[in-house]
Design a protein that fits this description.
This protein is an alpha+beta fold. Helix content is 29%, strand content 19%. The strands form four sheets. Strands 6-5-4-1-7 form a five-stranded antiparallel beta sheet, with no helix packed on it. Strands 10-11-13-12 form a four-stranded antiparallel beta sheet. Strand 5 (97-103) and strand 6 (106-111) form a beta hairpin. It binds zinc ion (ZN). Zinc ion (ZN) is lined by residues 192, 226, 233, 285.
Length: 295
């Protein structure tokens, strides 16, 4: 009896072990499949830095290293309009971004802050079709782009005395949205709308001078959605929360997040896409995409 019990016990233990082993083997096989797929994806995905980049402002420094200290001197300086053939994009721990390229027979590095790339679709004549414009950290608008159908916003919708302009279709959609918000008890004003390339250029240089190349707030000129003329920054009644993260938690911020899609707007920068966009979340920054989306 004892022998049988023992052997039965062993069988049970072995059976469990076998089952566990199979499970374990299955897991390993699955992990290997996932790793193989990931490797294939990383091999096929093109490095975002691997294309032509144009220097947008004079004095773009070129370094032999990206680990800068007070002793590091540039190898050279590039001028506005110079073009480099990017090999690789990367970012230091302090958020400074670089493009590696070949410079006089060696690998050199130019700060991403000085470089820009205009995709062919943004070079089309006239106003770009709403919703199809590609403007992000990798793709720029031409420095000459200004929509031809900008209209001035009535002062009662504006937060300051400044003149704010938007493309007609975006303004018409925004007006309906702000009126509906007001009917729901949410007072919301426009604090920024269309911004020209040269305005953004000054703002960006100011920000970099103050906070360094690793700043993550101001977009390079040409890379701001505000130049599209379909993008607004909105504020509520509390001036302390204007363009602050906490605005997202206010009644107005919540209303915008919940309802903006119905009017064709979208929050471009959210906590979920910070890594992808390279900017911190902006619960006040909305872009009009033309087609109302499902709530
Ligand atoms: Zn904005």
């Amino acid at each position: 009896m004892l022998r049988t019990d023992l052997s039965r016990g062993k069988t049970v233990i072995f059976g469990r072990f076998f089952l566990q082993m199979t499970h374990c083997t299955k897991t390993i096989a699955l992990l290997m499949l996932i790793m193989a797929a990931a490797m294939r994806i990383s091999q096929s995905a093109e490095d975002p830095g691997k294309k032509e980049w144009t220097v947008w402002s004079d004095g773009c420094p070129v370094y032999a290293t990206t680990q800068l200290d007070t002793e590091t001197t540039p190898l050279a300086a590039l001028s506005k309009g110079d073009v480099i053939e990017g090999i690789k994009y990367f970012r230091n721990a302090d958020y400074i971004e670089w493009i590696a390229f070949r410079h006089e027979g060696q690998i050199a590095y130019a700060p991403f802050a000085w470089l820009t790339h205009v995709p062919d679709s943004n070079k089309a004549e006239g106003d770009l079709p709403i919703g199809g414009e590609i403007v992000d950290r990798w793709n720029s608008l031409p420095d000459t782009y200004e929509p031809g159908d900008l209209v001035s916003l009535p002062a009662s919708y504006c937060y300051t005395q400044n003149e704010f302009r938007l493309r007609r279709e975006a303004w018409e959609a925004l007006k309906v949205m702000l009126d509906d918000a007001r009917a729901d008890g949410c007072k919301i004003w426009v604090a920024s709308a269309y911004r020209s390339y040269s305005w953004q250029s000054g703002k960006f240089l100011q920000k970099v001078e103050k906070e360094g190349l690793g700043q993550r707030v101001s977009a390079k000129p040409g890379h701001s959605e505000h130049q599209l003329g379909v993008t607004v920054d909105l504020v509520g009644p509390d001036p302390k929360l204007a363009l602050e993260q906490e605005f997202g938690e206010t009644k107005e911020g919540q209303w915008i997040e919940t309802h903006c899609g119905r009017y064709g707007f979208r929050l471009t920068y959210t906590e979920d896409n910070e890594t992808e966009t390279g900017y911190i979340a902006e619960p006040w920054h909305l872009r009009y995409l033309g087609k109302p989306m499902e709530e």
